Amino acid sequence: MKLKQRGNAMVALIAIVVLLGGIALAAFLSYKSAYDYGNKMDNELEAIYDNNKNIYAQGTQTVLEIAQVPAMYAEDFKKIIEADIQGRYGKDGLKATTAFINEHDIKIDGGAVEMYKEIQPTIKAFRAKFEANQTKMIDVKRSYKTAQGSLWMGFWLRIAGYPKVDMNKFNPITTDRTENVYKAGKEDGPLKLR
Fold it and tell me: pTM of the full predicted structure?
């Protein structure tokens, strides 16, 4: 009888060890999952934030560089015309400017208009790319905050010390006008272009 009781006690002990081992394994795997998730999200937010700076810097530089071209074109065009008029009609050739323009059928705005037209789609493309990346950052931040607020994942994220980044850093870039509209809770009216 004692042998049977010993056998039953041993089976019970093994069952308890297996159960505790299973609980410990489940806890470890939950912790590991939360740790890996927190690490991924911290790094993803940082990468999106850095890419936002990259998109903004490159877009701004591109627009500013393109915007210089029409002025350069106009300045160079003016020099060419002045030199041609003075070469052909002398120092007082500016009096004959109208005759020269009529004679050569010059379209002063031909190239400049095309250059001006290039600026608008460049600005739109830059803004669309920047908006898409900011929206991605907002969505990743939302997902991360949702996980932090959940019972089980949030518990393990806190145990693992996540987030390890300043979550307030990952806010979208806005304008003073937008901030004022949100403070007031209303908009003054349509945007004035001029």
Answer: 0.68
